[in-house]
Amino acid sequence: MAARGRAVSQALSRLNLDTLARLGPGGTFNPPAVDPRALRVGVVHLGIGAFHRAHQAVFTEMAAAAAGRDDWGIAGVTQRSATVRDQLTPQDGLYTVLERGRGAAPLRVVGSVREVLFGAGDPAAVVDRIADPAVRLVTLTVTEKGYRRDGAGRLDRSDPEVAADLAGRSPRTVVGQLVRGLQRRAAGAAGPVTVLSCDNLVGNGEVLRGLVHDFLDALPDAEAGQVADWIATSARFPSCMVDRIVPATSDDDRANVRAVLGLEDQGVVVAEPFRQWVIEDDFAADRPAWDRAGAVLTDDVAAWESVKLRMLNATHSLLAYLGALRGHDTIAAALADDALAAAAEALMVEDVAPTLRVPDGLDLTGYRRQVLERFANPALRHRTVQVAMDGSQKLPVRLLGTVRDRLAAGAVPRQAALAVAAWMVYVAKGRDARGRELPLDDPLADRLRAAAAVGAGDPKGLVDSLLHVEAVFGTDLPEHEGFRGVLVDHVARLTA
Ligand code: CS2
Questions:
Q1: Which residue's CA lies nearest to atom 6 of ligand 1?
Q2: For the packed helices 414-429 and 481-495, what is the interaxial angle rounded to 10 degrees?
């Protein structure tokens, strides 16, 4: 059967502009909203993973269609592996978005990605594209770790990759690529540009601007000064909040698309029907008409950002660690476990909500319900271990702000501490309730494993040694007796 399935799929043509044109108007899928052949590149996107393709690339195509523009095509950069380039280039950049769950739209073929560059393979091409006068926008989804920050949130100059970029090689880090591209723009009068971070960071625009300046500060004065002046007048770094759940694509998903299109698409991305984008309205030049595609442009993005990170992402992590430990494969299965559903609700109500400034027009109770409904979507099959990855990078952003705010208010953040404790046990145990191995996929994996080994076997020891990983907990949290105590209680219960 399997061999036969493979033979059939090999015989199928690949999705591309020609095969798509031959399909004609099918009715079973939505073709690109604009003619991809007519689109010219105006955006460089760093980090063209599944999330970008299911989120900003869709908004950008819809915006171009709504405004009748042909100058907002995307040049995507895949950073470390050539996979996405090899998937999309033979397909002329086309790929499908497969929505799963209640209210799912028909398959959508997206045509806004016009080119894919491989950052590690051809770093000079990335700099060239950022410096291209036709480009007015550089967007990023490079995940938390792609920013290469130290424990204090500054550019980590002890990171060998950062150091190598600073020394002048063709840049391979995201901040290096940006600075070298901006430097070329400044020198060549390429015109103003907006740099828009779309990662789950607090104040993502401000963070990125700071890292760009950290990089410049480490360069020789003459070189850096001019660029800093140019950035002050000609570049903007707005913040934004992005939201759409995008689980990893499976073979089943690709088979599903094959069955509908009759074409092989190696670039399929899966997403829930929901998508949201709240963007700070601060651009150096023009921008796609994203507001006409459902995005909200605002002067106050910070409140939206913390609602999303502290409610949705924090609860996601809680369900991921507790769920994975209890042997639940998916977020939906974790939420179907009553004890975990109660913990999720308690985290949002007791610890998170009191710390939030609610943006105008948002009903927090409705938001909370909607988050839980989205997590409960069984068709998504979003794996707990996928959300569990990179905990050292995610915890400070989504949970520790809540912890610090609650402690400052004199409260013990019991529910937020449960999520942190579950992460500690996940790191230390490495196995679920059924004895299956849990992957520790994290840039600090070695450091975390070493810390967990020191404290092994004793809840107090484990909490103390992991709390002293400064890159995660800073220097303040290990000193906090109340927080430490509640972590020890939770870890003792979770390991009993
Ligand atoms: C998730 C996010 O993997 C994770 O850490 O919490 O990717 C989440 O699905 C998105 O932020 C939703 O917008």
A1: 313
A2: 50
